[in-house]
Amino acid sequence: MMKAIITVVGQDQVGIVAKVANQLAELKINIVDMSQTLMDHNFTMMLSGEWDDQQLSFADAQGALGRLENETGLTIRIQRQAVFDAIQKL
Amino acid sequence: MESQSILETIQMVAEENLDIRTITMGISLFDCIDSDGATARQKIYDKITTSAKDLVKVADQIQAEYGIPIINKRIAVTPIALVAAASGDDNYVAYALTMEKAARELGVDLIGGFSALVQKGYQSGDRKLIASIPQALAETSRVCSSVNVGSTRAGINLDAVGEMGRIIKQIAADDPVNCMSLVVFANAVDDNPFMAGAFHGVGEADRVINVGISGPGVVKRALEQVRGASIDVVSEQIKKTAFKVTRMGQFVGTIAAQRLHVPFGIVDLSLAPTPNEGDSVAEILEEIGLESVGAPGTTAALALLNDAVKKGGVMACEHVGGLSGAFIPVSEDAEMIRAVSAGRLNIEKLEAMTAVCSVGLDMIAVPGDTSAASISGMIADEAAIGMINNKTTAVRVIPATGKAVGDEVVFGGLFGRAPVMRVNTSQPAAFIERGGHIPAPIHSFKN
């Protein structure tokens, strides 16, 4: 099971959550947790997702979100979760 | 999900230039030694290109999956003076060309280990290697060279100090930029992942992965939050930040080692600046409260920074090694360059700073008419600081042939540009020409 953190930052606009969630649903990425906020007038959303890495490679997930990034003008990052645990937890 | 922690981590990378400066694979070449030079070089090429064949691929994968920039992929090999000595070759330039060819084949940025260890004396390979350095650096672009001329245990080889002054002048006469690929060390370390000084030490395992971190910008930003607080708070803040930065190094190194099936060696806890704005060690010192780096108080602020980075970093990783300290390469630090250009930072102050941090007079351009003896004098001074204080010190100076104070040498990329600095022109020639060996210091009665 692949676990990743997806962060979406950009100008607030109608349908951001829907666009990202739709894309994740298409990729069969399960959203385990999510939060969103406005920071410096920027919409900032964080999603914790997991999926079966036998079905979808990390690179393919990254590629699909990269295309969504280009379409929407949002900044979308996807990073494997382990890095956050390593840096922030003892 | 802890949003704040996630955002902080992303901000460290996206806005504060946190990155892994280098993943360096150390490779022993002892099993490549051969009495026939051509055979030895073929074995060297084969060993490097098979051992590190996935290094670049794995580093790129880690960068993509975890969102951590990995700036350089490098290789460090056993000092070539030891490997080549058994061959009958009179000149070791061909070994440098082999290293270059392997580095290009693999796509690694730099390859270090065109090196000699002469702190106590020369073996036959050492003389040949040192004599080959100017041509080796002229004919390659990725090969890095280092020579260890002193140590706390052995003292300082003054013959080598004199010779390295002449070698540096010789390199500069051809092209000053090539001088950035040569470091003259005292107390050189065996597991340093940073260039130009990386080589794979004699006591190291067959292959190993070492990681060098960066991150001055992260420390600077963290200190902005404690302006006006006591220096104890500054120290604590640096420790906490260094911990996080180092965890990233530990994490990346562990994964890289797993994927490459090579043991993980050490994390080098260094703050390595780049010429990018906001990625400067000098700016940290100024954030601590100096009007400019170079002001009285600089050495004290740097000592605190260096020590706090180590204290924070040591707990964050399994094994610490390499140079581990704040780097002060002039050309690679935008604020250092400004301070030098404005006359607020001089070589003498830099020398004092090297007594409390890693690693030495680094990436400093000096006037083209600086004599070989003056350069040897600088090397001797740095080696003495290292020898007496049980620390690594080094000299990487660039005689700017045809240029004078006020001009600059441009290296490009990570290596930046160096304003030519004034050097005291009174000559140490008679001292250097004495040659011989400065005895090892006494290890008691410390003062």
UniProtKB/TrEMBL annotation, chain A:
Among PANTHER family, the record links this protein to: UPF0237 PROTEIN MJ1558
Species of origin reads Lactiplantibacillus xiangfangensis
In which family does this protein belong, per the annotation? Belongs to the UPF0237 family.
Q: What is this protein called?
A: UPF0237 protein IV64_GL001498
Provide the organism lineage as a comma list. Bacteria, Bacillati, Bacillota, Bacilli, Lactobacillales
Recorded superkingdom: Bacteria
Domain ACT residue range list: 5-79
Q: Name one Pfam family in it.
A: ACT_6
InterPro entries given in the database record: ACT-like_dom_sf, ACT_dom, UPF0237/GcvR_regulator, UPF0237_ACT
TrEMBL record, chain B:
Indicate the segments annotated as coiled coil, or none if absent. Answer: none
For this protein, the record's CDD domains field holds: RNR_PFL_like_DUF711
Q: Which residues cross the membrane?
A: none
What top-level branch of life does the organism fall under? Bacteria
Q: Which Pfam families match?
A: DUF711
Oligomeric state and partners?
Homodimer.
Provide the family line. Answer: Belongs to the UPF0210 family.
Name of the featured protein? UPF0210 protein IV64_GL001497
**What is the source species?**
Lactiplantibacillus xiangfangensis
